[in-house]
Amino acid sequence: MEQKVLVAFFSRADENYNVGYIEKGNTHIVAEMIAEQTKGELFHIKTVTPYAKDYKSCIETAKKEKETNARPPIKGDIAVEDYDLIFIGYPNWWGDMPMAVYTFLEKHNWQGKTVIPFCTHEGSGLAGTEKKLGVACKGATLLKGIAIQGSIAQNSKDQASQSVVSWLKRLKLNH
Q1: From CA 167, how far away is CA 160, in angstroms rounded?
Q2: Which residues pair with 146 in a beta bridge?
Q3: In 128-149, which positions are buried (b, 16+ CB within 10 angstroms) versus exposed (e)?
Q4: What is the pLDDT of residue 173?
Q5: Which of 76, 83, 94, 168 could pair covalently with 4 via S-S, beta carbons 3.0-4.6 A apart?
Q6: Domain boundaries, the chain
Q7: What is the pTM for the complete model shown?
Q8: What is the pLDDT of residue 1?
Q9: For the purposes of burial, counting CB atoms within 10 Å of the CB of 25, is it exposed (0-12), middle (13-18) or buried (19 or more)?
Q10: CATH number for region 5-170
Q11: The predicted structure's pLDDT at residue 2
């Protein structure tokens, strides 16, 4: 039986560390690669109030949100309960997922779902976010995630795509 695949992700364009001002966020680029390989549906997790365009202001807001365990409101939603396999993507902010990802995760029942994390970063990798995702998605089976440097996603798309394809092959999830 064909599994229904969802690729839910949080990503931010504008000024990003190590890549300057960008049109499409690093995690968004990787999400599209995963969706293409798995025939998954994309869902972009977006906050009601956008983050500042400049990097320094954005990360200061992100740090405050993490310190206060905030749950910023998000625009729209998608019924993850209708999917079998759910990829969750995010940039690594302060060693964690952006708090808006938790807003999304906490709205849903993850029982019986398979969840696979992916993140973009500039040196910190997944940084323990797999464990946090496992806790937030109670009842889900968690598979091995992937971390791709944002600068590679942005500037070396072939290299990023090869990493995604290899990872999905190891998980036996590509079409």
Answers
A1: 11
A2: 118
A3: ebbebbeebbeebebbebbbbb
A4: 86
A5: 83
A6: 5-170
A7: 0.96
A8: 60
A9: buried
A10: 3.40.50.360
A11: 80
